[in-house]
């Protein structure tokens, strides 16, 4: 009996530990997936507003195409997210089914053993037999041990009954949980199918808009040329300003070093030979195109790096219409587009905000790109272009915190787009902003 109890206890303990370990991981993972899905659905709502507007105007513009393409990418992400949730909940269902099987097995063993005990107790139910069992002892100590045995046997049967009830309750809980998980899985499957239908409709609409736009090739090529011209001017301006920041940081460092050396020499009594200068500790950067970083600037750089894929968007609501790097033009066959950052479509009059703490390095304008604010984050820089206006007080040297408003987004009436152009630079190297912004 003791061996049986020990076996059941060990099985139950292992089961509890396994369930606890699994439960520790699953809620957070499911919660993250669900939160991500809600954020994607919110993005769908943003693009829907733009699509409804363009549909009502029957414009079939590039803005329309970019909005529907963005919605397609978001829907595909939602479907992938739901598939992950389905896979995850399927694993939970399988796990709970295994748990139920183990509980049923333990319950069967307990009931079988309990039935045998009850049968044995029934056969030896006569009180006289128990008294004879005690009084037939060879010694007083043996009689005490037999009394203890009978008491323990009674406790054991009561414990077995309690254990059976407990196992039955655990089994009922697991069955209810399993049914809930199966219902949840069915809801996710229905959700996936609904999204797939919406995706098919979006792709059909994208094809129709694309067909119309391809007939406007001359107009689109002119628009592309104007955009490329403005982008080149912006790129040149940013490169020059970053180069100036690097040179200025180097100049300040070298000037500080000269002052330290002059002060050291001035402190030496006349007529004595000046000892050689102490060997300098290597600076954070020494190459010609790199910049010396103060401890504060180095910390900001490290903090910026530590927030990769977790920075807030430069606008509260929006969706990406132009990706970073070189890629095919959405309508012009054989034409490649190269973007130094990303374009984020948003609402008219939306506030543009700084994505991380830093210092304003420059405020300037470029035809076709509106007003631009360049912010330094140590060796990193973020650029915010296509601003209609810059907020009062936003000027060179201004200290900014994360999400501080810097201006208002510009609306291009000719192209009928409201978007902010956002870039991230590591010194003189352009990097993909999507790798830094929170998904």
Question: How many domains, as an integer?
Answer: 2
Give a count of the beta strands, DSSP E runs of length 2 or more.
Answer: 13
Query: Which oligomeric form is depicted?
Result: single chain
**Judging from the principal axes of the Cα atoms, what is the shape?**
flat
Describe the structure.
It is a single chain. The protein has 439 residues and is α+β, with helices and mostly antiparallel strands. It has helices at 2-57, 62-123, 127-135, 140-213, 217-266, 295-306, and strands spanning 319-322, 325-328, 336-339, 342-345, 351-353, 358-366, 370-377, 380-390, 399-400, 405-409, 411-412, 417-426, 429-431. The strands form two sheets. Strands 1, 4, 5, 6, 7, 8, 9, 10, 11, 12 and 13 form an eleven-stranded antiparallel β-sheet that branches. A two-stranded antiparallel ribbon has the order 2-3. A hairpin with a 4-residue loop joins strand 11 (411-412) and strand 12 (417-426). The two termini are 58 Å apart.
Which key phrases capture this entry?
single chain; 439 residues; alpha+beta; Glucose Permease (Domain IIA); 2 domains; 11-stranded antiparallel beta sheet; two-stranded antiparallel sheet; 6 helices; 13 strands; 60% helix; flat; disordered N terminus
Concise synopsis of the structure shown:
The chain is of the alpha+beta class and 439 residues long. The protein has helices at 2-57, 62-123, 127-135, 140-213, 217-266, 295-306; strands at 319-322, 325-328, 336-339, 342-345, 351-353, 358-366, 370-377, 380-390, 399-400, 405-409, 411-412, 417-426, 429-431.
């Amino acid at each position: 009996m003791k061996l049986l109890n020990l076996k059941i206890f060990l099985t139950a303990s292992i089961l509890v530990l396994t369930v606890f370990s699994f439960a520790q991981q699953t809620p957070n993972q499911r919660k993250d997936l669900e939160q991500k899905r809600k954020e994607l659905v919110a993005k769908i709502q943003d693009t829907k507003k733009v699509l409804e507007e363009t549909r009502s105007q029957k414009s079939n513009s590039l803005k329309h195409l970019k909005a529907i393409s963005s919605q397609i990418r978001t829907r595909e992400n939602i479907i992938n997210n739901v598939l992950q949730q389905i896979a995850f909940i399927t694993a939970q269902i399988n796990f709970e089914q295994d748990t139920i099987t183990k509980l049923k097995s333990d319950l069967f063993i307990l009931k079988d053993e309990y039935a045998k005990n009850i049968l044995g107790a029934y056969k030896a139910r006569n009180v006289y037999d128990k008294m004879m069992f005690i009084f037939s002892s060879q010694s007083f100590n043996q009689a005490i041990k037999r009394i203890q045995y009978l008491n323990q046997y009674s406790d054991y049967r009561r414990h077995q009954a309690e254990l059976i009830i407990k196992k039955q309750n655990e089994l009922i809980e697991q069955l209810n949980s399993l049914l809930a998980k199966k219902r949840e899985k069915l809801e996710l499957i229905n959700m996936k199918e609904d999204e797939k239908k919406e995706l098919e409709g979006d792709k059909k609409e994208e094809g129709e808009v694309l067909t119309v736009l391809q007939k406007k090739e001359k107009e689109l090529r002119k628009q592309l040329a104007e955009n490329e011209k403005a982008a080149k001017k912006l790129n040149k301006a940013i490169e020059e300003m970053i180069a100036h920041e690097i040179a200025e940081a180097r100049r300040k460092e070298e000037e500080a070093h000269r002052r330290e050396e002059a002060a050291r020499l001035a402190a030496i009594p006349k007529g004595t030979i000046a000892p050689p200068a102490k060997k300098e500790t290597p600076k954070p950067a020494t190459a010609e195109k790199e910049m010396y970083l103060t401890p504060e600037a180095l910390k900001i750089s490290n903090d910026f790096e530590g927030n990769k894929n977790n920075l807030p968007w430069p606008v509260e609501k929006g969706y990406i219409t132009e990706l970073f790097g070189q890629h095919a033009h959405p309508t012009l066959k054989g034409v490649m587009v190269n973007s130094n950052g990303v374009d984020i479509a948003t609402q008219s009059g939306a506030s543009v905000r700084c994505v991380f703490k830093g210092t304003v390095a420059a405020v300037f304008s470029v035809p076709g790109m509106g007003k631009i604010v360049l912010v330094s984050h140590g060796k990193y820089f973020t650029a915010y272009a296509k601003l209609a206006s810059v907020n009062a007080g936003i000027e060179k040297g201004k200290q900014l915190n994360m999400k501080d408003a810097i201006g208002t987004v510009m609306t291009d009436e000719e192209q009928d787009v409201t978007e902010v152009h956002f870039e991230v630079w590591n010194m003189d190297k352009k990097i993909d902003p999507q790798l830094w912004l929170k998904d």
